[in-house]
């Protein structure tokens, strides 16, 4: 099917889903104070290959209609994948029945009408692929073949190609009804290298809204092989305290813990080490983080959040100072006080394109290694040793030992530890090697010192 036909058919499907939601809202409004209805419809293909053989082919086209009703501060929700009027009416009645058994919550209900996305900006997120199964298999296999052709690559954990597009439609009884389409494409390869009986596994991937912006299959295979071979011959290090350089792939996770700690849910539950920190310095004063949800083709872009609230550009951190918590409509109401009313920040469901900016400039990766002089580069992390209540951080890691500003050899089986409050304040600089494949877009992060538990 050509992309023009896909675009036309998906447009018609979006309009159909909008009419279904409008009808559902009309039905429910006769029975409850307020209602919101949403559907995420996903269509696409997943293909995986291993050692020249096609291992898996999956087609999917699914979506569930979710209906949430509110009455006297009580809430009930139910869902259905049958979009017939009869099934929708049954689902509304089921949500009302569930609502009867819930406790009244003064903070439940729809968001602030003045913030709703009655107009929806076009963010150029929809670039569907007309790849057929044979082309998809060829992409995954070519990545594998390129990696397996490299010396010391002995086995493959597979090549994977995914191409999907989704339709998101949201409406509520305040009259807001909007939808948009978005595509996602990715290609990855994971291989195993072997040297003197020691084996290492690593991977590489590329992802984009636009399939034409993906890196080539051959380059992904070669990158996976290069990363794997670089870690062969890994040694262990002694227990010590040294500077740590987080590569971009893991640096995004370090900032992800910050996003989790300032979410409204964590704050009103008082389960965050950043409780009552708005207006305080929590990062170096040269570091700023902005949220930019309207970047065209952005991997984290969205015109509205899961509450139907219009997303907006905002400062998360300015010169190291925390500016806001990430609030849904519910958490904004929950955290509001008489003298300080709060509004949603448009973050129900997650964050949108965080960009880290340095007033000191940003160096490339090689320059950061030289700046560190002696320490550890972390390229992968294991385990879930992060306590967001206390900020205590302890993760298993792999990476490289650096001395005299140069990588000496790969290392494994060590743990990095510290407290996130200290780690964030002790960031020395960030790199210009920005990772763009996730909704947190930052380069390498150099931390002044962390505890290393080795042999």
TrEMBL record:
Residues 239-454 form the Metalloprotease TldD/E C-terminal domain. InterPro entries: Metalloprtase-TldD/E_C, Metalloprtase-TldD/E_cen_dom, Metalloprtase-TldD/E_N, PmbA, TldD/PmbA_N, TldD/PmbA_sf. GO terms for molecular function: metallopeptidase activity. Residues 35-98 form the Metalloprotease TldD/E N-terminal domain. Gene3D superfamilies: PmbA/TldD superfamily. Transmembrane segments: none annotated. Residues 127-232 form the Metalloprotease TldD/E central domain. One of its GO terms (biological process) is proteolysis. Pfam families: PmbA_TldD_1st (PF01523), PmbA_TldD_2nd (PF19290), PmbA_TldD_3rd (PF19289). Belongs to the peptidase U62 family. This is Microcin-processing peptidase 1.
